[in-house]
Design goal:
By secondary structure, the chain is an alpha+beta fold. It has one domain (8-59). It is built from 2 helices and 4 strands; from the N terminus they run H-H-E-E-E-E. The mean pLDDT is 91.
Length: 65
Amino acid sequence: MNDKKTPEWITRGKTIAELIEELQSFEDQSLMVELSTDGGMNKKPISLVGKENGVCVLFNCEFSQ
């Protein structure tokens, strides 16, 4: 998906330090954090943060029934 039409910032991702810096820019630090993989149409809360295969992974532990 990394072609000439897709900007590099979309596919590169963020480091932990970059994410922390961006989150610290929010005035209200009590805001809940949610994750979306479809442009914000659907969002899920972050349940756990872990390390897997050398990367930081944000987990949502809700399971569809």
